[in-house]
Design goal:
Endoribonuclease that initiates mRNA decay. The protein is mainly alpha-helical and 529 residues long. It has 14 helices and 8 strands.
Length: 529
């Protein structure tokens, strides 16, 4: 049993050793295969890396070459451009040098020619002097011969030459006067008949063909409101709103018992229109207070300026006038808010333009120029600056400034006989101006003198230092003067009202009395940011 056990143990040990040996061989074989595979894979990776590196190297070399070629081409291009510029400059310099040489040669030739001409002139002068001497000698000889002949004739006729000349002149004068007087009498009679007939015909046809309405402006505008409750808002607490509105617009706002109406009084139509539009906007908006009033009045004043330009453009388009300067168009629009002896200036100018065009066409003259002159004949009345020149001369100067036709300028300046009429259009404009102004109901003399007095009243107060605004209201019975608070003290304001009143008494004539109110308002404004 013991031998069998050891034999079995030995057998198991041999089997175990053989298994270990075989397993070891198999393990070495497997490890060797994996190692070979890893080496092959590593070799493949290295080979691929070398290939990629070579490819990247070639790409980088190609990019570097391309960049080099690009920079080289740009450098060559820039160099060529600079070379071309240099060549052009050289060519220009050569051309300029050639031109200068040619000019020098021309100057030399001209100097030579001038020298030759000078020599020729000297020769001609010498020849002329010789001829003059010969002519003087001949004249003296002829005068001597004529004197001898006159003396012989005087001996024969027993009359001196002067007496014979006077008798001949008297005889011819008497005959000429007799014939001329008969001719003149016949021509004058015929001209009177023909001219009177033709002139009446032209004037009547012109008036019949021109139908323009007569617009007589007054000094009051009516602002209609929906209910009387709005009057309280317009007046404001303790009257602050209505005072602010009057101070901003320069008109008098009359809120009385008139139902559903507020009266705007002022002699300047522009101020009345600004006040009316401002009231309309304030009532529509509903916010009525001093700050809002000043803002709305400022915007309305700007809108009125735009409206003036629009009115001027519309007028020249309606009349078919082209090429008018923008400043003249603006002045034409400003005529809408001006009057001449109570007659609206724009309607008057439109009427004169149509009358002038019709008359010029009837007389065979330039109707377009006549219409242009008729529209612009009173342009001097709307010049925004005060001038001492008559409005006709001022209008003529403005027309010249804006390159109007000389015939138009002469017609403007001569329509009140300030200058001499040099064209046929000038008397036509003068006649048409008289026709338009002399129609029944067209003008009112009292209105013009009244407006002139109010303007003089405002200008008188504006001449004092520190006065910024001045408004004549209540038909000229009150003068409101706004002063600059930074330059005029309260004491100076009191003295200023007295000085203005004294100057009005000395220099102006007026009915009743005038109340002078000097307003000094101090404002302190700061902004929180």
């Amino acid at each position: 049993m013991d031998n069998t056990f050891w034999l079995m143990l030995l057998t198991d040990l041999l089997a175990l050793g053989v298994g270990i040996y075989v397993g070891r061989k198999l393990l070495y074989k497997a490890f060797g295969k994996r190692e070979r595979e890893a080496e092959e894979k590593a070799a493949t990776i290295l080979k691929n890396a070398e290939i990629q590196a070579e490819s990247i190297k070639k790409d980088r070399i190609l990019e570097a070459k391309e960049k080099y070629l690009h920079l080289k081409s740009e450098f060559e291009k820039d160099s060529n451009q600079k070379k071309n510029i240099l060549l052009q400059n050289e060519n220009k310099l050569k051309q300029r040098e050639q031109q200068l040489n040619q000019m020098l040669e021309q100057n030399k030739r001209r100097e030579t020619e001038l020298e030759q001409q000078r020599n020729t002139l000297n020769q001609q002068i010498e020849a002329a002097n010789k001829r003059k001497e010969e002519a003087d000698k001949r004249r003296e000889e002829a005068e001597r011969m004529r004197t001898q002949q006159v003396e012989q004739l005087e001996k024969i006729a027993n009359l001196t030459a002067e007496q014979a000349r006077e008798q001949l002149i008297d005889a011819l004068k008497a005959e000429a006067e007799s014939r001329a007087s008969s001719y003149v009498k016949n021509i004058v009679e015929e001209a009177k008949l023909t001219a009177t007939k033709e002139a009446k015909k032209v004037v009547i046809e012109t008036i019949q063909r021109t139908a323009t309405e007569h617009a007589i402006e007054n000094c009051v505008s009516v602002f209609n409101i929906e209910s009387d409750d709005i009057k309280g808002k317009v007046i404001g607490r303790e009257g602050r709103n209505i005072r602010a509105l009057e101070a901003a617009t320069g008109v008098e706002i009359i809120v009385d018992d008139t139902p559903e109406a507020i009266i705007i009084s002022g002699f300047d139509p522009v101020r009345r229109e600004i006040a009316r539009l401002s009231l309309h906007r304030l009532v529509q908006d509903g916010r009525i207070h001093p700050a809002r009033i000043e803002e709305v009045v400022a915007k309305t004043r700007k809108n009125i300026e735009d409206e003036i330009v629009e009115i001027g453009e519309r007028t020249v388009i309606d009349l078919g006038i082209h090429g008018l300067h923008p400043e003249l168009i603006k002045m034409v629009g400003r005529m809408r808010f001006r009057s001449s002896y109570g007659q609206n200036l724009l309607q008057h100018s439109r009427e004169v333009a149509k009358l002038c065009a019709t008359m010029a066409a009837e007389l065979g003259l330039n109707a377009k120029l006549a219409k242009r002159a008729g529209l612009l004949h009173d342009i001097g009345k709307v010049w925004h600056e005060e001038a001492e020149l008559p409005h006709a001369i001022l209008g003529m100067e403005m027309a010249k400034k804006y390159k109007e036709h000389p015939e138009v300028c002469n017609a403007i300046g001569a329509h009140h006989d300030e200058i001499e009429m040099t064209t046929m259009i000038s008397p036509i404009v003068q006649v048409c101006d008289a026709i338009s102004g002399s129609r029944p109901g067209a003008r009112r003399e009292m209105m013009e003198s009244y407006i002139k007095r109010l303007k003089e009243l405002e200008e008188l107060a504006m001449n004092f230092n520190g006065v910024t605004k001045c408004y004549a209201i209540q038909a000229g019975r009150e003068l409101r003067v706004m002063v600059d608070a930074d330059h005029v003290t309260d004491d100076r304001a009191n003295a200023l009202s007295f000085e203005i009143s004294q100057k009005i008494e000395k220099e102006m004539q007026y009915p009743g009395q005038i109340k002078v109110t000097v307003i000094r308002e101090m404002r302190s404004v700061a902004y929180a940011k």
